[in-house]
Structure formats: structure tokens, C-alpha cells
Amino acid sequence: MSYITPLFTHASGQPSEPAHFFEQMNLPVPHAGESYRRPVNPGDRHLVFLNDFGLVIRITANDLVMNQSHPHFLKPLFTRQGEKYRIDIDPGIDCTATRAETKKIYAYLGRTYGIQVDDERPDNVGFIPDGTRRYPVLIDLDPRYTRICPDSAAVERLSASARLAATLLKWRKPAAAFDPDHQEKFYKPLLDLAADMWPAHRNNADPAKIAQFFSACAAFKQRQNLLSIWTDEANNYNYTTWVARAYAMRLEKHAGPAQTPINAP
Ligand SMILES: Nc1ncnc2c1ncn2[C@@H]1O[C@H](COP(=O)(O)OP(=O)(O)OP(=O)(O)O)[C@@H](O)[C@H]1O
Ligand SMILES: [Mg+2]
What we know:
two-stranded antiparallel ribbon, 9 helices, about 260 residues, about 15% strand, about 30% helix, binds adenosine-5'-triphosphate, binds magnesium ion
């Protein structure tokens, strides 16, 4: 497929899939300079940062979508599968792993699960912000650079290697830290709200449920369970801070979910 298709244009009166998504979410459709495009192959992935909600909207060309069922892959709170793109709403997590932590995380994921990553960089991992900084997840999932190659030895070594990694990482409660359902449990109130805000078979979302979801996200953000770490200049990876700021300025003027009173569960 072509990666130069303008993502957010309304061709012949019809919004593109990503533009339709933003409209249904009651968010302004991003302008140029308000979304993050990867420097290599721009166009195959876009990120839009929602600072006040601690959310990232991730738009991925369908042929680059990767199965995210692994417990240490970041899972979206909501996904919309379109003809050309998959659009996810990802939780904003703690992407401040040091180089030393990053090394240990990739070593653990490789040894325990056979996960192989070509670009083992600190900016592609993060921690679920549960207050422990002990549950690592990969955020930059791309089938060209990430694969799972479990072999029987790796599977046999699983529990011993998980213990070893926990010791290496000085994680004091490995049992809790490596709960495979950790993400589902941690984000459960948001996942429950997201589940029926826009059923897959319907073209239009339910505006009241969308507003409820965003209110709950804002409340999670206030409790620091959703983060917008990219707003901090120290984490300005490839201009993420700048594009996030540009979009936030327009979002402020938009009568969208930001205007919704917070009455989260
Ligand atoms: N869910 C998230 N929570 C916090 N920060 C995020 C999240 N998703 C993305 N980011 C920030 O945006 C940056 C870019 O994200 P990501 O690595 O997924 O994009 P990319 O398209 O692969 O870009 P590149 O090829 O430049 O690495 C991350 O390094 C991180 O700083
Ligand atoms: Mg990356």
C-alpha cells in the first residue's frame, strides 16, 4: 500500500478513516505538525498525544500491525480496525527507563519469552505506572523489528529465568510484577468503558459513552495512573513534546471531551 495517502484529509466530502475516528471521538482532526511521524518511513505510523488525558492515539498502516497479545507488549485501551489503518488509543505510560534498566528488560524478555528486538532502545520500552516501576512493556511494536522466537529451552527455563531477571532488576515482588493479566487489571475501569463506546459493527460512536471514557481517563491522569511523560522537555524524543504541545493548544479551543466534567467511577 502507499504510505503517502494523506492521513487526515476529507477526500470528496468523505473523511479519511483517521479523520472519521477523531470526529467520532469529539477531538479536533490533527493538522500538519500536530502528530508525530516516524522519521524513517514517515506515513506508516502516526501518534497524536492527548496531554490532559494521558493518552496516545496510534495510527498504524494495516500491513504493519503486530499481534499485541503478549503480556509485556503495551495493550491499547481501545482499537478500531479500518480498511487501511488500525487506530488504537494507548495508555500513556512511564517511558523513562535508563539504559541499564533497558538492557536488563530486553535480556529478560529475550531469555524468558524469546522476544527479539532489533532496536533495543530506551525510548521503545516503558513501565505500567502502577507505582512500582516494575512491570515493563514494549511500546514500539513493529513486525519488521520485533519477533517472538520461543524455543523449547526458553520455555523450560521460564520460571528460573523469571526469578533470575527479577533478582537482576531488583524487583522485590516478582509474582505481582509478572502477572500476565496486569495490564487488564490495572486499566479495567477504562477498558470496561471503552468496550461499548463504539462497537466494531457500528459506523458511529456513542457520544455520551465517549465523554464518560474521557472523563475517566482524566481522573486516571490526575491520579498519575495515566501519564503524559512526553510533555516534559527531558523526554522530548524526536520532537514528541513539540507536536504534543501544538495539538494541545488546539484541543483547548475545541468543545470536545476536554470540556466534560470529571465524574469518573
Ligand atoms: N503509550 C505511550 N506512553 C508514553 N509515551 C509514549 C507512548 N507511545 C509513544 N510514546 C512516546 O513517543 C515516542 C515514539 O513512540 P514509538 O517508539 O512507538 O514511535 P515510532 O513510530 O516507532 O518512532 P521511532 O521509529 O522514531 O522510534 C516514544 O519513544 C515515547 O517517547
Ligand atoms: Mg520508537
